[in-house]
Amino acid sequence: MTKKFNIFANLKSDFASGLVVFLVALPLCLGIAMASGAPLFSGIISGIIGGIVVGYLSKSHLSVSGPAAGLTAIVLTAITDLGAFDIFLTAVFIAGLMQLALGFIKAGSISNYFPTNVIEGMLAGIGIIIILKQLPHAFGYDNDFEGDQSFLQLDGSDTLSSLFSIFNFIQLGSIIITILSLIILIAWDKVPFLKKLKLIPGALVAVVVGVMLNEIFTVTGSSLAIAKEHLVSLPVPTSFDEFKSIIVTPNLSGITNPKVWVIALTIAIVASIETLLSIEAADRMDVQKRYTDTNVELKAQGIGNMVSSLLGGLPLTSVIVRTSANSNSGAKSKMSAIIHGLLLLISVVSIPLVLNKIPLATLAAILLLVGYKLAKPATFKHFWEKGKYQFVPFMATLLAVVFTDLLKGVALGIVISIIFVLKGNLKRAYSFRKEEYADGDVIHIDLAQEVSFLNKAAIKLTLNDIPENSKVVIDAKDTVYIAHDILDLIHEFKTTRAIDQNIKVKLKGFKKAYQLENSSETQNHVTIEHYYDVAKRMMVKKEIKTEVFPD
To answer: Whose CA is closest to 316, among 306, 326, 331, 328?
Structure first.
């Protein structure tokens, strides 16, 4: 009973946000299917499964799953290479099994290593992409498919050239509906008495007004009427047999084809990485700061892909655009994702003709606001104030996401973040200072909280530069972990060069556990996991600090 109460506790806000996500997801599902060279309904099926099945199994409160633009090129190439959509579905089923296995071996924990500035840079980049991609639709120029996030488009143009082409294809009716929709959406968020109407989302009002206005333009024969190609274009089955033919099942004879397994592995890896990125982003957007079990999410995605393939659907992932729309619309729980899936199912069966009257300009207005909220100026200001070590990876990720794709952008951001971490680690591993005493100089080397093998070169250089006849104090009182390499280096310095050059060395604050001698469990100390494991055990045992190498 408790679980049921929790799911339905926020039904009012979840229904409103689920409705908004449904409106956003409908053209995206169709657009991605068209760009993938797959049957149009395969995108809708994937959206339905992503909403209902994955939404139910997932532990994420905000994430919404469905067909992903990041898989479009992979799917298009795969269908072409395999020569049949039903054989491709076999690859999707196998990919789902692989994702399920990844969940059981806890591969989802990799998401813990995504830096915050990279995730925020990815979100801001996606926001800018949404704005750039939706502006043509807002003006009535729909050469690019809905949901495309790539800078280089399938028609040979790119995102920027499409923007310049707007002026050759301006449709005044689309502009009027876009502006009116934006006014409604902004007013619904800002005007006090409208904000109280939580059950009626502004997006629904904007869609209804857009449909009615275009119907008036059409009936009156106005030149402002929006043509069919600028409206949602959901296929309409004319008979029950035609509707049944929509469901395509996997051709299991393809299971012996090596290409099928290669494609399955590719889909499993890319879909899993995009899902983990989206989940991290969803958790960042959650105002309640709840965290998602990413291993459970991989299992949910795996089962979702298996079910989607059995019903003739495209591969799915957790999708940032839909997740962002869900969060911005005030979703409180995963019930909103399930509602969006149910609405997709009900609408395509019962009211496809009504849905086909929705202008793409209205949906563009909804997405333009989603994009702005992801890339608002306050985000840039926040990371600028945090300094270059936060701002540079943030901007690098953003620009790479916009001009290449999501995965390349995130990879670049992570690489730059690692370089900055290593650079900072090298600088902060230790500090040394001199103090004047009556009997001569005393050089103090104070080690940091963690000193890894990455600091070996810098410490070695410092020890080599210590002059003869000096007095050196190496202090580890604040140190939690020291790598074996560093201990060997200090030991060699104290027992060889220091003796040869009359350098007196005093070691302070070293723990006995740091000797790492005759201990089989500490021989492999080169992984980050081991660093933290050793440090944790030391902190639990509260070992007393003594000198490792007594005078």
So the answer is: 306
